[in-house]
Design goal:
Monooxygenase; homodimer; mainly alpha
């Protein structure tokens, strides 16, 4: 039973799917700490608006690519990444003003 | 001749490759404006270090995934994205200190 499970996990296709899911979780959730930081500090002056707008446009295209390739990992990861980046873009418009120093 | 070229471009496989390459160019180059902004302002206080460190770890895993799937678009895009994020992480360590206000 354990050997069967290990053989299943060590199957290259399973391994690469695990790597893909881990990759998707990491690149997608990497925007969460930025959202938390922005929400806490209410400051996004140093964050480029082009980062989020280009990234979100790109993830929409990645979704189209993933749908055609029937790759659910690519579709799912980029769907969530699109949402996160659109939220960050709205936060940038709210918190993007520099803090008055003088 | 023109019809042959159009038929080649309108072929679904060609179209989806174009979408993939455009997606890769957008998500990868989205980090360039952030690098330019950080270089100009010498300030990255509002940028979360977890964004870059998680993203770079994720893109390395995406490269492994792309190599196994023999998908050059995924491998290439993530190789460049890894480099950009490592550079941004170094910039964060240099420019991450908040500007003294008081």
């Amino acid at each position: 039973m354990l050997i069967l499970l290990l053989r299943q996990i060590l199957n290259p296709d399973t391994l690469v799917s695990i790597v893909g899911v881990l990759a998707a979780i990491l690149t997608t959730s990497s925007f969460l700490p930025q959202m938390i930081k922005a929400y806490r500090t209410k400051s996004m002056h140093d964050v480029s608006r082009y980062l989020m707008s280009m990234f979100a446009t790109g993830t929409v295209l990645w979704m189209v690519y993933g749908i055609y390739k029937s790759d659910l990992v690519i579709v799912g990861a980029n769907a969530i990444a699109t949402v996160f980046n659109v939220v960050l873009l709205f936060m940038k418009f709210s918190y993007g003003k520099p803090t008055k120093v003088a």
